[in-house]
Amino acid sequence: MNTSLNKNILIGITSSIAAYKIYELIRLYKKNGYNVKIVTTKNALNFVSPLVLETLSENKCFYNQFEPRDNVEHISLATWTDIFVIAPSSANTISKCAQGIADNLLTSVFCAYLGYKKPILFAPAMNTGMWENPIIQENILKLKKLNCDFVEPQNGFLACGTEGKGKLADVNLIYHQTLRNLHQNKNNNSKKIIVTMGGTKEKIDSVRYITNSSSGKMGTAIADWAYYFGFEVNAISTIELERNYKTTKVNSAIEMLNQLQNQDYDYLIMAAAVGDFKVQNESETKISKEEIEGDFCLKLTKNPDVVATIAKNKKENQKIIGFCLTDKDLINCAKNKLINKNLDYIIANDVKTALNTNQNKVTIIEKSGKIIDIDLDTKENIAKKILEVVCD
Questions:
Q1: Kindly report the CA angle at 197 between 192 and 202, in degrees rounded to 5?
Q2: Catalytic annotation, residues
Q3: Residues 178, 79 share a domain
Q4: DSSP for 254-320, written as a single string
């Protein structure tokens, strides 16, 4: 997939034992089409190898402040990149950046880069005592006032043998926060979007349930891109999801409906595959086969139509986007649902291309009757295109 729009990312690595995790971060950026260069402090090379960094990034690793060169590297790197991600960022480097000290190549790049008013993202990693040091917190606050963004460290077991806050944030969270800084439209910051995803699960008994083949990948991609574009995102999901935005875990159609009731939103995108039926008399305990004589029959009853129920109370300034998945008469089926459920848009996708795959092709149908076809592409790229159409 290529959602990068030819964006350049400069990673600054400081001397933290968490530095080895940046190998995976580089891989994520490169896999998704971003151009990557690396600048490190000299002490960081105690934890990472320039050869590995150069192999992964496909670019030279920079760490010497005064080596012979054809250009002024702290300026050329600052002008080249679209975002400067300092990860892991040590207490020492954070403090130097906050005080304007430029005594190595990385801090010199920061000093030059700050003047260009482009995104800066810090991902701190340090001992809990250092993280809680009021001087460090004061320096972090100073950087935030200069519009630097932070992915806060997590609680966990630290290299020093203690447990507490200071562990480098998961690289996936750093990755998602990077893309938000790169792609967000600040006009969206005041807008709220809810995305549902995954297949609902309807209980048979305490351990069994009926569900469908939805992976939740399309809905997850839409929520991710909504976050990158700057929206305030709430993902209501039947799958486990660790993200920088709000996520709410549900199982059944009723649980999803309850979560959606009385929610404040500008856009609701119903990408979840909501089961049409539930078990009429679910058992609170596991049903044993010894209890059953002959065949075991389930009696199903209809679930409420979640999106139609919510759309009945839609406000004038709200937009609801539904999905239609079928293998028969797709476009006519989608058009009927668009009208009958009081939707603003519906996304039509075929069972043969949508399920159990990382790709899809869809047709967007507007309430006005306009039809937009999106050819086969990755679900990430399709999610981006959907949002560009429906969130005008």
A1: 130
A2: 160
A3: yes
A4: HHHHHHHTT---SEEEE-SB--SEEETT--SSPPPGGG--S-----EEEPP-HHHHHHTT--TT-EE
What count of Cα atoms within 13 Å lies in the side-chain half-sphere of residue 166? 21
What would the pLDDT profile of 76-124 be if each residue is shown by its tens digit? 899 999 999 999 999 999 999 999 999 999 999 999 998 888 999 999 9
Do 199 and 117 belong together in one domain?
Answer: no
Query: Domain of 223: which CATH number?
Result: 3.40.50.10300
Can you tell me which residue has the tokens 């043969």? 352
Q: Is 160 exposed, middle or buried (0-12, 13-18, 19+ CB in 10 A)?
A: middle
The pTM assigned to this predicted structure is: 0.89
Structure-block tokens of residue 152: 């806060």
> What distance in Å separates the CA atoms of residue 48 and residue 46, rounded to the nearest whole number?
6
pLDDT in tens, 342-360: 999 999 988 777 777 888 8
Tokens linked to 365: 């149908």
- Whether 3 is in a domain gets the answer no
Residue 77, exposed/middle/buried by CB under 10 A (0-12, 13-18, 19+)? buried
Range of the domain at 203: 187-390
- Output DSSP code: residue 193: E
